[in-house]
Design a protein that fits this description.
By secondary structure, this protein is mostly helical. Helix 2 packs across helix 3. The protein has a single domain, classed as DNA Binding (I), subunit A (Orthogonal Bundle). Strands 1-2 form a two-stranded antiparallel ribbon. It binds zinc ion (2 copies). One zinc ion binds next to strand 2 and helix 2.
Amino acid sequence: MSKLKHQIRIKIRQRAKNRCEICGRHGTKHNILTTHHIKPRAFGGENKEDNLMCVCEECHREIHNYINTQLHKHRKPDMSLFKEAINYVKIKKNEFSKWKVD
Ligand SMILES: [Zn+2]
Ligand SMILES: [Zn+2]
């Protein structure tokens, strides 16, 4: 269970206008928005607004997958890795949406 305060979650979601900050999709019953720690809790990241972002479950999973993959390759768990993970998923999602037909 996360100890992140409910109030902070609400604030982060409002700041993001109820959208995923990676893929831009709105939060719905089928697209659950979660709170990601840019510097993860496991590495000392705090529950502060500037360390938090609003992301959907799908993007969230991909960010952590990327971080874990890099850690398995013996990358250092530093800010450059955490930011790279976010950018990686952002670019991946944007490239995908270019191919989507409306
Ligand atoms: Zn997303
Ligand atoms: Zn996270």
